[in-house]
Amino acid sequence: MKITIICKGRFHFYDLARELIQLGHEIHLITTLPGFVAKKFGVPRSSVTSLIFVEIVERIWKYLPKFIKKKFNIQFFMLDFFGKRASQKIKKCDILIAGSATALDAIRRGREIGIKLIILERGSTHIKFQHEILKAEYKKYGVSSVITNKKVIAKELIEYQEADYISVPSHFVRDTYLTYGIDKKKLLINPYGVNLYSFKKNKKKSFYLNNRNYFTIIHCGTLCLRKGVQYLMKAFNELNLPNSQLLLIGSMGEDFSEIYSILKSKSIYHLGPFRQDELVDYYSIGSVFCLASIEEGLAMVIPQAMACGLPVICTDNSGGSDIVRDGVDGWVIPAQNVDLISKRIRSLYISDDLRKKMSMSAIDRVSNGFAWRDYGVRAAEIYSSLLNKKL
């Protein structure tokens, strides 16, 4: 199959492109990152068209004063600009796959040149669901922030209608689309994977360990309200477990620094962010991985942590229930529930046997169906089946 993939940034798209290439398909990846980045992920430069201007502008924007960023919202402009430029680079192919909020011009261009199958990739929940749940969380914590530009929401809603299919990573995400009236037949589900060669348990290191026998809880992801770090920190503080620590890996979100300073305690450490190849060292010193997200598609850190032998406590809203078997590899709990986070952490704290059993189950689980190759094979089978229906 000849497949064009359009993505702003990287996310899971580079893994998808690599696996499809290795399966023998012809891929054209249109992205904002330079070709050498794609090459690091196994995608040859010859398969990549880079629109790097978008990436440069956004990185400069991050360092501008806050008052400028609050006055001007460039979110829609950058997404729209990339989408329009990317659509001009599309060549005739069998399948077009485009990331949401950048796909509308590509979808319409694809129709013009007769592309048989057009799939919208959305790594998060339905944009209205996402907007409303985050808006409520910001209000709850008294944080003033523009969550999603209204023009972006309006554009995505049109993309949902005009694409042939919408590919999502979890049943949790699918259900949010059903709630907002999207036909079940239009939704494709393919859970993300993990690089099993890079992510596997190694010998424990001594950084941030006062004692090698410390019970260590790992969070990996931006420290922000969306990731539910506030609930995890509250649970950890309330437990007050002897010889325990909480390691928070990830950059500090602009909405979270004040909340973090309030909830911070002596056994909570903010580390990171780190490169992908460094994360395995931190996963390997953990006792349990906890992700308390209130909204997410399917956090790729979940299979990463499992591959390193960490039992996982995650919320339904993390998308983790498509990988984590409740009570087997860890637990899947409702979002925004401090009591249940505490209860599940305590269960692993008091029982080495349970922790070891769940650790082995987690490794076995991701090793059988959740490598990136498994993801790529599922994707190719889905695309081939849908394409045959069009012929």
Q: Could you please describe the fold and organization of this structure?
A:
The chain has 2 domains: 2-193 and 371-390, Glycogen Phosphorylase B (Rossmann fold), CATH 3.40.50; 215-367, Rossmann fold (3-Layer(aba) Sandwich), CATH 3.40.50. 44% of the residues lie in helices and 15% in strands. It contains 16 helices and 13 strands. The strands form 2 sheets. Strands 3-2-1-4-5-6-7 form a 7-stranded parallel sheet, with helices on both faces. The chain has a 6-stranded parallel sheet with strand order 10-9-8-11-12-13, sandwiched between helices. The longest helix has 19 residues, at 372-390. The protein starts with a strand and ends with a helix.
Question: Secondary-structure map with pairings?
Answer:
Layout: E1 2-7, H1 13-22, E2 26-31, H2 35-40, E3 48-50, H3 53-62, H4 66-71, H5 75-87, E4 95-99, H6 104-112, E5 117-121, H7 127-140, H8 150-162, E6 165-168, H9 171-179, E7 187-189, E8 215-220, H10 229-239, E9 244-249, H11 257-263, E10 268-271, H12 276-283, E11 288-291, H13 301-307, E12 312-315, E13 330-333, H14 338-350, H15 352-367, H16 372-390
Parallel strand pairs: 1-2, 1-4, 2-3, 4-5, 5-6, 6-7, 8-9, 8-11, 9-10, 11-12, 12-13
Helix pairs in contact: 1-16, 5-6, 10-14
